[in-house]
């Protein structure tokens, strides 16, 4: 899908305020409501807009410990990776799972848990029990300096 300046503006505004109504969005990007809504629907149908979500404060939910966990696998086969990826997808504490290069690890997980006891339970009770996991190295986040969900859409 070719994006023009208006499409990019729509994406920028919606990333910053997914609850904006169509009239306000149209005003902000300089369109009338009908063409604006058509463009939003086209962006959704193309798969460029994948959904709308609320951002929630983890600490206010009691999830005060964030960890980055590097996982090493014993075999580098599609089946082994698929098994690991399926296993971590069902863990609600896993915010991100990235297949990485340039490290001794194969994956980096971003986790959020209540406390160290919760982390230990997740690590020993679930992560290390996934078939093929041979190494786990954890780092704990002291401060989240930058946290974005808005992608740069400027042309």
UniProtKB/TrEMBL annotation:
It comes from the Bacteria. The keyword Transcription regulation applies. PROSITE patterns: HTH_ASNC_2 (PS50956). Keywords: DNA-binding, Transcription, Transcription regulation. Residues 3-64 form the HTH asnC-type domain. SUPFAM superfamilies: Dimeric alpha+beta barrel, Winged helix' DNA-binding domain. SMART domains: HTH_ASNC (SM00344). PANTHER family: LEUCINE-RESPONSIVE REGULATORY PROTEIN, TRANSCRIPTIONAL REGULATOR AZLB. This is Lrp/AsnC family transcriptional regulator.
């Amino acid at each position: 899908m070719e994006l023009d300046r208006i499409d990019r503006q729509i994406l920028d505004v919606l990333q910053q305020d997914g609850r904006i109504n169509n009239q306000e969005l149209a005003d902000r990007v300089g369109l009338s409501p009908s063409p604006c809504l058509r463009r939003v629907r086209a962006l959704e149908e193309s798969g460029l807009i994948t959904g709308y979500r609320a951002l929630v404060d983890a600490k206010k939910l009691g999830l005060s410990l964030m960890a980055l966990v590097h996982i090493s696998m014993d075999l580098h086969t599609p089946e082994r990776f698929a098994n690991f990826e399926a296993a971590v997808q069902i863990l609600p504490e896993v915010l991100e799972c990235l297949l990485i290069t340039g490290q001794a690890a194969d994956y980096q997980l971003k986790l959020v848990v209540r406390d160290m006891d919760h982390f230990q339970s997740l690590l020993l009770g679930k992560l290390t029990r996934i078939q093929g996991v041979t190494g786990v190295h954890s780092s704990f986040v002291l401060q989240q300096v930058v946290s974005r969900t808005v992608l740069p859409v400027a042309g």
